[in-house]
Amino acid sequence: MSEPSEALPREGVIEFRKAGYRLPGGQRLLHDITFTVGRGETLVLLGRSGAGKTTALRLINRLADPSDGEVLVEGRRTLDWDPIALRRHIGYVIQETGLFPHHTVEKNVSLVPRLERWPESQIRTRVQELLALVGLDPGLFLKRYPHELSGGQRQRVGLARALASDPSILLMDEPFGALDPLTRADIRAEFQALQRRLGKAIVLVTHDTSEALLLGVRIALMEAGELKGLYSPGEFLQSSEPVAAAYLGQLRALETFQKGERS
Amino acid sequence: MKQFLFEHGSEILEATLEHVWLVGATMLLAIAIGVPLGMVVARKPWLSKPILGSANVAETIPSLALLGFLLPVPWLGDRADRLTITALTLYALLPIIRNTAAGIASVDPAVREAARGMGLTGRQILFQVELPLSVSTILAGVRVATVLTIGIATIAAAVGAGGLGEFIFRGLAMVNNRLILAGAIPAAVLALGADFLLGVMERLLRPTR
Fold it and tell me: What is the DSSP letter of B133?
């Protein structure tokens, strides 16, 4: 380990230091990204498609390695982590869920505990706990296959799977993106409650401004591979930066429309 | 007809069993070689051309010629069944390699991404995710290869490896249609039976998506 251990509390759980990423062909996807995420904090990466949000997320669990600068997880450069150990240490939720279609809900959720060779009885208890946590009745869902679930239920199973080994970090790539608006609102609200209870460092990618405002402790606005600014939701609402203002403009237009509908 | 079956029944049975042995041994060998090669094709794109290319070339060599080519090869040429099984395996490889590779390639990228992100090693992804999800596609390749092999295996009689081809060759030589049919009908029944059984297995093992 290259970092002195007393540096840990000061540095936060995830730290980007001037991190950049280029494709092997030389195309720049990320440039000079610097931010820190502390324990129990949720950072939302907000930006349009192609802004580099997902790439930034993938730098954290070493699905990609930074070509410039560095990314630190728990005070240690990701490059110094064993990628497998690092990934098992981090929960990962993606929009398409990526549930294994040939495994039951039970087997999907217990994936990481089984890889880590937990004792059988402990795995069973944990799966029950997790399903209850994400609002699914274990009695009903344990033996079902992903294709027997609704989109919202699948997303919950995906979240349960990511939380299985109680990781201190959770990465979420548009976790609510594929859901219909009502289900999305439900799951978001539940997730907000979970967020507080779990006390994890969470990085969440979204292109939805209201989601960012609702779930983010801080909002990192990204555009064309660069970090345009870091805001608290309050600051974001006040911001006069052109990009932030554009997002807010879209949100306000929606609100005005909704008010118009109601009256 | 009764008379014919009475005279040749045990002979036909024996030849059928020989045929099954040639085809069975061939398929086991072809699966043992073809599935790993298919995995290589799926994983290492730069090896896919040479592997698929060679298997393709093997497929285009006329079967009698292939048996002839292999005859002088030291260990192989010593025994007719060895020679035949080797030649048949070369034919059976292509569909198995191709289907294994196709099965692995058809795994949902999101599933693979999630598997990597959850910290599965490359090996674990292959054996716990990609192969289980490809089983029915691989089996479809095995099915095609089996039916193909049952047909080509009749040629084995030309080098004295036995099987149902014995009757066909003898019938051709003696201009005796009954003898030809005594080889051709059981071979066709074998092919249909294998096709049906493997088809059922394929359906049972198809992953629910």
Answer: H
Whether residues A161 and B118 touch (CB distance < 8 A) is answered with yes
CA distance A136 to A150: 12
Contacts of B121 in chain A (CB under 8 A): 84
Token reading at B204: 């049972």
Do residues A166 and A89 lie in contact, with contact meaning Cβ atoms separated by under 8 Å?
Answer: no
pLDDT digits (tens, 9 = 90+) for B118-147: 999 999 999 999 999 999 999 999 999 999
pLDDT at B182: 87
A191: buried, middle or exposed (CB in 10 Å: 19+, 13-18, 0-12)? Answer: buried
How far is residue A172 CA from its own chain's centroid? 2
How many angstroms separate the CA of residue A241 from the nearest CA in chain B? 34
Q: What is the pLDDT of residues A35-51, one digit of tens each?
A: 999 888 899 999 888 88
Indicate yes or no: CB of A101 within 8 angstroms of CB of B119. Answer: no
Chains A–B, number of C-beta pairs less than 8 Å apart: 67
Give how far A219 is from chain B: nearest CA, Å.
Answer: 24
Q: Is the pLDDT of residue A262 over 80?
A: no
- CA of B99: how far to CAs of B104, B112, B202, in Å? 8, 19, 13
A233 touches chain B (CB under 8 A): no
Residue B206 pLDDT greater than 80, yes or no: no
- Long-range residue pairs from A53-56, CB within 8 A, at least 24 positions apart, any chain: A53/A173, A53/A205, A53/A206, A53/A207, A53/A222, A54/A173, A54/A205, A55/A21, A55/A29, A55/A30, A55/A225, A56/A16, A56/A19, A56/A30, A56/A203, A56/A205, A56/A222
Across the interface, which of B119, B132, B133 has its CB nearest the CB of A84?
Answer: B119
Instruction: Please answer yes or no on whether B111 and A161 come within 8 Å at the CB atom.
Output: no
The Cα B118–Cα A90 span in angstroms is 8
Q: CA-CA-CA-CA torsion for B107, B111, B112, B117, nearest 10 degrees?
A: 180
Residues 6+ apart with CB under 8 A from B97: B34, B37, B38, B41, B51, B52, B55, B141
Cα(A218)–Cα(B27) distance, integer angstroms: 60
Cβ separation A84–B118 shorter than 8 A? no
> What single-letter DSSP state applies at residue A207?
S
**Beta bridge partners of residue A219, listed in sequence order:** A44, A231
